[in-house]
Amino acid sequence: MHLQQVRDIVSEVLALGPAGQQLRRESALLGSIPELDSMAVVQLIAALEEYFGMQVDDDEISAATFATLGSLADFIEHKVAA
Amino acid sequence: MKPAATAAAPARGFFLGSGAAARYGLYYAPAGRCRGAYQYVAPFAEEMNKARRMAALQARAMSAAGYAVLCLDLHGCGDSAGDFADARWEGWLDDLARGALWLRQQLGDALPQAPGLWGLRMGALLALDYAKRCAEAPADLLLWQPVLSGSSALTQFLRLKVVGDMLAGGAGQPGGTAALRSALGAGSALEIAGYTLAPALALAIDALDAGQLAPPCPVRWFELASQPGQPLTPAANRAIGAWQADGVQVSAWSLAGPQFWATQEISTSPALLAASAAALREDCHAS
After folding, report:
1. Would you call A15 and B172 a contact, using CB atoms and an 8 Å cutoff?
2. Chain B residues 183-202 with CB within 8 Å of chain A
3. Residues B61-102 pLDDT 10s
């Protein structure tokens, strides 16, 4: 449900340009997008927190959450619904 | 012949003091009659590096508009004496006081009012704390995307370590940022993203809240958003509201542009430069 917004935010934070819109639900993020270093992950979390008005807890910052665009969107879905 | 005085002179690098007290400064002399002076207060850690281009562009624009600008590299920030591990919040406040004194001596009677401060992100929070504590109030503050809560900013910085550990394939930082905060509280320095963070510096930052630092001078506040015409963030409105209740004169702008202090590639925000220049021009007409 939030896939498009999450795609836009990922794309904007990582400055992926038009390539960002090519990201699919199953597209791998961590380990696949070189721009996604620790600083970018922190920024991405902050941008998601601000946009969706929620707080990400430390123990939710895991490799599984950032595995794919879909896993990240599912996580946001779960946070926003909570 | 038209005087060449209106063209901005190139910036001049120099050291203020020597030995452990040496601070590297970059001075932009005012073109023509001096309309005022500003000290640039850079953001924290890596944001300082990412923002160098914008800082230089703005300093040049201010210099061309008749303002003297001093960009002083604070204690332990790379070009000055000391390592980042030695840096303390109070030391940075002292550096700003030295910078203000230097500007006064440099400009003498040509300086029409006390030097102001132009701060970006954490630099804005440092400028606010300085304005509140210093003997001579700055003429005004120019704040770019101020960090409002030292505690949130510290959490963001500590997260770099949590995320770094995650990326390294570890199980993550046990206890996350809360555990890192306790380590700082117990007096341990932390190594984060190439910076050694001293407990004293971290705890000083942790305690700061912009809303409680109503400055003794007018403020011009600039925020960047992804779309033009956005309202200010609720957090900004809260801080500004608290200051206005204390009688502080605040003008604020929200502009569209990249968060250049954090973008992957070095980026600039022409809208922010233009709005800052326009705000300074208004001063000229008023005076």
Report:
1. no
2. 193
3. 999 999 999 999 999 999 999 999 999 999 999 999 999 999
Kindly state whether B5 is in contact with chain A, defined as any CB-CB distance less than 8 angstroms: no
C-beta atoms surrounding A82 within 10 Å: 6
From chain A, pick out residues whose CB is under 8 angstroms from the CB of B173: 58
Kindly state the DSSP code that residue B75 receives in the 8-state scheme: T
Contact list in A for residue B233 (CB cut-off 8 A) is 50
A10 phi-psi bin (left φ>0, alpha ψ -120 to 50, beta other): alpha
DSSP codes joined into one string, B143-198: EES---BHHHHHHHHHHHHHHHHHHTTSS--TTHHHHHHHHHHTT--EEETTEEE-
What lies within 8 Å, CB to CB, of A65 at 6+ separation is: A71, A72, A75
Amino acid at B176: G
pLDDT digits (tens, 9 = 90+) for B259-275: 999 887 899 999 999 99
Tell me what ipTM this predicted complex has: 0.84
**Measured between CA atoms, how close is B193 to chain A, in angstroms?**
8
